Amino acid sequence: MKKASPFEIFKVFFIIGIQLLGGGYVIVPLMKKYIVEEHQWMKEDELIDYYAMSQCIPGIIAGNISVCAGYRAGGFIGAVAAILGLISTPFVTILILANILVNIVENPIIQNAFYGIRISVIILILITIKDLWGKSINSKFTYTLFLIILSSLLLLNISPAIIIVLSAITAFLYSRIRKGEKYD
Amino acid sequence: MIKLYLLLFYEFTKIGLFAIGGGYSTLPFLYYIQTKYQWFTIDELTNMIAVSNITPGPIGINMATYTGYTTAGIIGSLVSTSAIISIPFIISILMVKLIDKYKTCNAINSIFIGLRPAAVALLTSIGLKLLYKTAYPNTLDIKAIFLFLILILPFSFMKKNPLLIILAGAIGGIIINSF
């Protein structure tokens, strides 16, 4: 595996950051092109491994996998260079857009546009739910868990963090009980 | 002001720690922050979601930058962005060090069986709450419901394309409000 300088790593992730539009999975083909094929900082099967692992740990998938690749290519400084490169264009773009938006938001046409965009956002959320549904809710256990969590969320104002921790514990205990059933 | 930065850092570190999966998993947390602190309005939040979707970069990090900026200016955006990547950054590096030892995440897979429905339930509750607030702000908003139905029919059959959906919503919003 080739080793790379922090500046090189920053540059590659800067280019990836400009092109990264959409969900976290968009980063995989980009990384395949730049990291695997162009610079050979990792092999393709390693990229797939890191992608799978990035989903299993806390954080934004695209950020996690960039840190992994940066670390592989250039150690700790490489990891810092990768994440900074990835987020610098998005960061500046957001600040510029936020400023423009604040200034034009009183305009009636813009307000009408955002009236519609708010509905678009709901549709985006609903489509994301549809996409996640099959691989998330596919058994009696997951269906029950979904219904319990959803109804408690609609009735009470619970922190998402508490929901995540409680579900993790529930699933862990459930898998223990299932294992017990199998071997008894 | 310092207290606000610290609160921002705390809340976004929490998001970094607990939002597992795609960028949309940060949404329930932002919604929670909105109800808890009122740093921004629900309308501003949906604007931020839209902008984060159509600008380059990971959606979750974009939303952190935007909410940080709306709440406490440029320093706020630096605080929230670095907070959301701090813990995942450390865990990612540890993961690379350990990945050769444990090739798959079998050990935590059983936990994920429970985390995925939780993530979908969190997202569903936000979708329903936003839908309710849009369709029934004070009285029934027939225009909004009409636009929702017109937009959701074609897009639920298509591959997800945030840019197109947001553009269609913007045009639809301008047309429907000019009557």
What's the Cα radius of gyration of chain B? 19 Å
> Which stretches of chain B are poorly predicted, pLDDT < 50 over at least 5 residues?
none
- Number of E-state strands of chain A: 1
pLDDT averaged residue by residue of chain B = 89
Mean pLDDT of chain A: 88
- Largest interface: chains, residues each: A-B, 93 and 101 residues
Question: Structural class of the secondary structure composition of chain B?
Answer: mainly alpha
Instruction: Summarize the biggest pleated sheet of chain A.
Output: none
Give helix and strand order of chain A, one letter per element, not per position. Answer: HHHEHHHH
Percent in strands of chain B: under 5%
Q: Helicity of chain A, in percent?
A: over 70%
Please provide a brief summary of the model.
With 184 residues, chain A is mainly alpha-helical. Helix content of chain A is 83%, strand content 1%. The mean pLDDT of chain A is 88.
Describe this structure in words.
The complex is a heterodimer of chains A (184) and B (179). The model of chain A has no long low-confidence stretch (mean pLDDT 88). Chain A is mostly helical. Chain A is 83% helix and 1% strand. Chain A has 2 domains: 6-103, no CATH class; 108-183, no CATH class. Chain A has 7 helices and 1 strand; from the N terminus they run H-H-H-E-H-H-H-H. Chain A has helices at 6-19, 27-38, 44-56, 61-104, 108-136, 140-155, 160-183; one strand at 59-60. Chain B has helices spanning 2-18, 27-37, 42-54, 59-98, 106-135, 142-155, 162-176, and one strand at residues 20-21. Chain B is mainly alpha-helical. Chain B is globular, with a radius of gyration of 19 Å. The N and C termini of chain B lie far apart (45 Å). Chain B has a domain at 2-105. Chain B has 7 helices and 1 strand. Helix content of chain B is 78%, strand content 1%. The interface between A and B is large, with 93 and 101 residues.
